[in-house]
Design goal:
This protein folds into 2 domains: about 90 residues, no CATH class; about 35 residues, no CATH class. By secondary structure, the protein is mainly alpha-helical. It has a two-stranded antiparallel sheet. Strands 2-3 form a two-stranded antiparallel sheet. It has 6 helices and 4 strands, in the order αααααββββα. The protein is flat and about 55 Å long.
Length: about 130
């Protein structure tokens, strides 16, 4: 996981004080990045529930019938909740901009389009999840 990589790099450093500063800064950045994505996702989830009270009713009934609210139990016994979360993340991805990828030297064909090699491309998640 990310934390073990950060801690391992800090432990291997020849300058513990500097390594601790970097570790603290990296940990802070990760916390902010994750909380921002979670906040965005929760905002849209509650927005869609407020716009569609019937979905809120269905979710409430599904959750009231489940005694164990652990993540594994919800994954196994709350199909509507899982579908709702998946759909919120599809429609409103926390990081809509996508990730960068480097095209191999020989280039690639995507459908009828040729993309030359050594080019950096980005397909935004928001657009990709609406492609038919």
């Amino acid at each position: 996981d990310i934390a073990s990589g950060l801690v391992g790099a800090a432990a291997a450093s020849s300058n513990p004080t500097e390594a601790h500063r970097w570790l603290r800064g990296d940990s802070h950045n990760l916390t902010v990045a994750v909380s921002d994505a979670v906040a965005s996702s929760l905002t849209f989830a509650f927005y869609y529930l407020a716009q569609n009270p019937s979905h809120t009713t269905i979710l409430r009934k599904e959750l009231e019938a489940i005694n164990d609210i652990s993540a594994s139990a919800l994954q196994a016994h709350a199909p509507y909740l899982n579908a709702f979360i998946t759909e919120v993340l599809r429609v409103r991805p926390p990081n809509p901009s996508g990730v960068l990828r480097q095209i191999p030297k020989e280039g690639v064909h995507v459908g009828n389009t040729y993309i030359p090699g050594d080019v950096t491309v980005c397909t935004p998640f928001w657009a990709m999840q609406r492609c038919e």
